[in-house]
Amino acid sequence: MSRVTSPKVLFDSLAGTWTLSRDLESANVNEPNGKCLGTATFTSRQSSPVLDANGKLQVAEAEMLYHEQGEFQLPSMIKVPFSKKYVWKLSKSEDSKDGKISVWFTKPGSEATDYLFHDIHISVTEGTNEPSLIQGSGGHLCVDDFYSTAYEFSTDLDERIQSWKTVHEVRGPKKDQVLTTNFSRG
Length: 186
Hints:
This protein has one helix spanning about 5-15; strands at about 15-25, 35-45, 50, 55-60, 60-75, 80-90, 100-105, 115-125, 135-140, 145-155, 160-170, 175-185.
């Protein structure tokens, strides 16, 4: 695995500010459609303990608060402010000596870690003289709706992440949405 393709180096390289552009498409006429423009910031912080799936207390090797904010523009040209926070954790993994990255919800109105959104399962496509493409995926079931996220991190020849993208699909009886977000260094 090359330098940036290890979960630790990928995790560390996300620190800082990113410009985000998101398209929200909903098949449900009662749900909004539109475009979000704003920033996303990853800020390192002290790791907080959480319970794993087996009820065992775990403390991540590293942790960052992800905070996105900006404006959501509806087709009617009305702009609505948005803000969302998640906690990204780098932890040891039984599957990989390099660790794993997980994304956690924050408790409403705070920056405290709440519950697991998903682990990011990473795969890498590398060319000999070409930038790497690092892909990941994660998902979870929320009542009857399934949330599935695909990640795509693009690097330059020096293996620095230049941009990344998420495609977040929500399918189920209550939601039918696709959110595509592009991130570039801000």
